Amino acid sequence: MNTENAKQELLRQTAKISWAELQRYFAAGKVIYVEASLDLIDVGVALIQDDKAAFNTWTNNQLIYPVNDEQAQVWSANAATLWASVVSPWVLVQPLKTQEQEHLKAQDQKIH
Questions:
Q1: What would the pLDDT profile of 59-90 be if each residue is shown by its tens digit?
Q2: What radius of gyration do the chain's Cα atoms show?
Q3: % of the chain exceeding 90 in pLDDT
Q4: What's the average model confidence in pLDDT over 24-46?
Q5: What 3 state SS string does 43-87 have?
Q6: How far apart, in whole angstroms, are the C-alpha atoms of residue 22 and residue 90?
């Protein structure tokens, strides 16, 4: 699939969704967090195209990673709504801009 077709397909499959609806995918270890500095669709295209170099860079810089238990608890407690895009078997998620501060706060608490 070429890049433009992949982008169009992902745009059709990307939507806002509640964390409650994503919990079963989280339980299966299939939910991947995408930092706000990255474009969710571009990350999905890279996954479709098996762009290992991009994923290694993003992973090494902690820009993408599996959602952890602490973050899941924060989203559950706040009844969060996220952007989600499915690139089977993965679900890529990114907080809505208003929820990015909550994510940063949770990350800060985890570090300290």
A1: 999 999 999 999 999 999 999 999 999 999 99
A2: 14
A3: 73
A4: 96
A5: HHHHHHCCCHHHHHHHHHCCCEEECCHHHHHHHHHCCCEEEEEEE
A6: 11
Q: How many CB atoms are closer than 10 A to CB 31?
A: 23
**What are the structural domain ranges in the chain?**
3-111
Question: How far is the C-alpha of 35 from the C-alpha of 38, rounded, in Å?
Answer: 6
Distance CA 74, CA 2 (A): 37
Sheet holding 81-87, edge to edge: 14-18, 81-87, 90-95, 31-34, 64-66
Read off the tokens for 23. Answer: 């919990």
The structure tokens listed for 112 are 């300290």
Checking if the pLDDT of 97 tops 60, the result is yes
Tell me the three state secondary structure of residue 1: coil
HSE value, Cβ hemisphere, 13 Å, CA-based, for 5: 4
Of residues 98, 26, 37, 25, the one with CA closest to residue 64: 37
